Amino acid sequence: MKRIGGVIVSHGQVATELVAAAETVVGDLDHITAVSIGWHDDVDLARGEIDRAIKKVSQGVGVLVLTDMFGGTPTNIAAMFIKENEVEIVTGVNLPMVLKLASHNRETTLSDLAKEVEEQGKQAIYRTSALLEPQKMKKDA
Amino acid sequence: MLEASVEVQNQLGVHARAAAQLVRLANDFKSRILISRKDTNSFADAKSILSILTLAASRGTILFISVDGEDAEVALAAVQELFMTGFGEN
After folding, report:
1. pLDDT of residue A129
2. Rounded Cα distance, A95 and A56, in Å
3. How many CB pairs under 8 A join A and B?
4. CATH assignment at residue A20
5. Minimum Cα–Cα distance from A98: chain B residue
6. In this predicted structure, what is the pLDDT of residue A141?
7. Which of A27, A120, A138 sits opposite B50 (nearest CB)?
8. In chain A, which residues have their Cβ closer than 8 Å to the Cβ of B49?
9. Does the active-site annotation cover B86?
10. Annotated catalytic residue: which of B15, B53, B69, B78?
């Protein structure tokens, strides 16, 4: 099965470490790579790095780019590569999103996977104390 | 459908790497494997890491495993074994 590739792009080393953390959990991820944009990197240099990363992970069925923050330079540079059915971007990357991208194992289109990863990222945020409240109440009862 | 309950044995509870182990195991079987937690009314698909993590199952938590499919018997035994051996941790 051909897999949709993944490129994580961030300020600093966040992208590299997110991929490393995901690999610790699920094992080696050949179809996902990281691009860390240095604080003083030149735009053309960064664009070249993202271009190479997309080509590296592409298996011909699309590449999903996950960036750290909407409006930030990594996202703005990555946005130059958006192309229907070829490159999609979802911003606000977190570890659950990388795990979702890492573990998708059925045939799906790039735009559907992008939507799933977006949803997953939002759903995976919890104010943890709120989850514990009902249990506390049960104990008191 | 086959069912059994297990207690989380390992110190760290069902954390990310443990959940990943469970997913790898679950994917070896055709059966649908559901893990549920009655005290919080939550349930998870054993083939999804992120779903399992939402159970927030710490050490001592009782979980119910429901397995449905042609290889349910072996799948249930394998999942029970994984929990009983504490995911190979202590």
Report:
1. 85
2. 22
3. 25
4. 3.40.50.510
5. B50
6. 46
7. A120
8. 25-26, 99, 103
9. no
10. B15
Which residues of chain A neighbour B27 with C-beta distances below 8 Å? 105
Distance CA A38, CA A5 (A): 23
Query: How many domains is chain A partitioned into structurally?
Result: 1
pLDDT along chain A (141 residues), means of 10: 94 95 94 90 91 97 97 94 97 97 87 96 90 57 46
Which domains can be identified in chain B, with CATH numbers? 2-84 (3.30.1340.10)
With beta carbons less than 8 A apart as the criterion, state whether A14 and A36 touch: yes
- The answer to whether residue A138 neighbours chain B at the CB level (below 8 Å) is yes
pTM of the predicted protein model: 0.85
- Write out pLDDT tens, residues B43-90: 999 999 999 999 999 999 999 999 999 999 999 999 999 999 999 986
Taking the C-alpha atoms of residue A89 and residue A66, their distance in angstroms, rounded to an integer, is 6
- Residue A136 corresponds to which amino acid? K
What's CA A118's distance to the chain center, in Å? 9
Cβ neighbours of B67 (radius 10 Å): 25
